[in-house]
# Entry
Amino acid sequence: MTALIQPYEKPATLKERAISLSRGKQFWLFQAGGWTVWGILLVVRDLTFVPAEYLLGRGVIYLLSALVGILLTTLLRGLYRMVWDNGVLIRITTVLLGSLSVALVWQPISNYMDYMSFGEFLPFEDFLVEDLLRGSFSIAYPTILMWSGLYFFIKYYQLFQLEKEKSLRSEALAQEAQLRMLRYQLNPHFLFNTLNAISTLVLDKSTDQANQMLTKLSKFLRYSLDHSPLDRVTFAHELETSKLYLDIEKVRFGERMQIEISVEDTAMGALVPSMLLQPLIENSIKHGLSKMVEGGKITITAQVDGDRLILTVADNGPGIPESLLGESLSGFTGVGLMNVRNRLKEMYGANQRFAFTREQPSGCKATVVIPFEVTGN
# Structure
C-alpha cells in the first residue's frame, strides 16, 4: 500500500500565515497613497471657491507638485536611512532639519506652479521671496514633518514585524528540534524492549521464535526509519506499521494475543504523527496481556467525530491503578507514553487530548483525540 505522508507543520494559529508585503513595497504604497490623498484633499478644497474652468489645470499642478514631493521625500528617506543607526538626538535633529530643507524647496516650487494654474506666466526670478516662501513654515513644514513621523512609525512597525517573524522562526526551529529529539528517543526505547524480549527467547532456547522476531524487527525498523521523525502519516500507514510491531509480539505471545481492529473508512486517510500507536499497544501488552496467563485481547479503534479524530487502544487486562487514570500521566515512568504525551503537546498544543480510562468489566483504554486532517489541508 502506498501511504500518503506529509511533513509536520506548526499549526497555523500563529497559521500567522498572512503574506506580508516587503518593506520596499510598503514604502512605495505609503508614498503613492499618502500623496494621492494629499492631492484629493486639495482638489476637494478648490471645488468650493475656484472657477470650474481652472479645476483641471489645478489638478494637473497638484499632480506635478505631488511628484516633486515624492522625489524630495524619497531623498529624505535616503537621509533617514543614513542616520538610522545613530543616536536618538541625531535622528531627531536630522528629521527637523531635513524636513525643513525639503519644505523650503518643495513649497516655492508648488507656489510657482500654483500661480501658473490660473493661466498666467511669470519668470521664476520675478517672484518675490515672500511669495515663494508663502506657506513654507505654516503648511509645507508641518506636512513634511507629518510624513517623517509616518515614515518612522512604519519603519518601526516593520522592524517589530521582522523581530516577530524571527521569533516565530526560532520557536518553530526549537519545536522541530524538540520533536526530532522525542521521535528519535522512541526508536532506542522500542529497540531496547524488543531486544530484551529476543534475549529472553534465546535464554529459553526458543531459537526459532527469536529468529522470527529478529526478522520482523529488521523489517519494522527499516519501515519506520524510511520516514522523517517529523512526518505525519495517514492512519492507514500507521496501522500497517503497528501491525509489524504486533507481528513481532505475536511471536512471543502466540495464541495468547488476540487483536481486534475497528477503523472507519474516513479515519484511514486521517493524518497522525508517525509511531503514535506503537507505544500505546506496548503499554497494553505490558500492563494487560503480559499479566494474564491465558492471554487477552487488544482492541484498536479509530473514528472521525466532526473535526476530531478519536483513536483508542484498549485491553481486557487487570487494568491500571486509579492514580494513573486521567490525562496527567504523572504516575507513568516509561519513556514511550511520556514521549507520546510530549509529542502531542508540541504538535497540537491545547487542541489535543490523551488520557487513560478503565474498561468494563476489566482492562484499560488509552484515548487520543487530535484534529481531523487529511493530506492537502
Confidence is low (pLDDT under 50) at residues 10-21. Residues 124 and 190 are 89 Å apart (CA to CA). The longest helix spans residues 136-203.
